[in-house]
Amino acid sequence: MNVLPALRSRQARVLVVDDEPVVLQLIWRMLEAGGHRVYLAADGVQAIAALTEHAPIDVVVSDLRMPKLDGLSLSAMLADRSPPVPVMLMSGYVADLSDVAADTPLLVKPFTENQLLAGVGRLLARAGQTA
């Protein structure tokens, strides 16, 4: 996989949340290639448990539409934490994008490894962490 050196950020602890196992594995490989430590969850409920089990988590990358607890609800819950956990949402459905606030970090599927790593780097920088 081609990772531009400029897109590499410090190693972050990233939780990836998606109900599609193939997508989880692909994103896990991309983030690990970028030097990050990656944890996986199949839905928002599992993500909440993983946040405690693998604390501290620096960034969450979550699918928008999932069973049990969707990405928007998960993002709202994490924004209320102290300190808040930055979330980048992702979706392959254009119709879903109208539900997302304009200032919410968002990746539209399919995306490249470089787009994913750049998005994580921006989240880290926005959270005041060294990118």
The value of Rg in angstroms is 13 Å
Strand content: 15-25%
State the helicity in percent bands: 25-40%
Q: Structural class of the secondary elements?
A: alpha/beta
State the CATH superfamily name: Response regulator
Task: Determine the mean pLDDT.
Answer: 88
Distance between the termini: 21 Å
Q: Strand-and-helix sequence, N→C? A: EHEHEHEEH
Please, how many helices?
Answer: 4
The number of domains: 1
CATH-derived topology: Rossmann fold
What form results from the Cα inertia axes?
Answer: globular
Side by side, the strands of the main sheet go 2-1-3-4-5
Major sheet details: 5 strands, parallel
What is the CATH architecture term?
3-Layer(aba) Sandwich
How does this model look, in words?
The protein is α/β, with parallel strands linked by helices and 131 residues long. It has one domain (11-125): Response regulator (Rossmann fold), CATH 3.40.50.2300. The protein has helices at 21-33, 44-53, 71-79, 113-126, and strands at residues 13-17, 37-41, 59-63, 87-91, 106-108. The relative contact order is 0.20. Mean pLDDT is 88; it is low at 1-8. It is globular and about 35 Å long. Helix content is 35%, strand content 18%. It has a five-stranded parallel beta sheet with strand order 2-1-3-4-5, with helices on both faces. It starts with 12 loop residues before the first strand and ends in a 5-residue tail after the last helix.
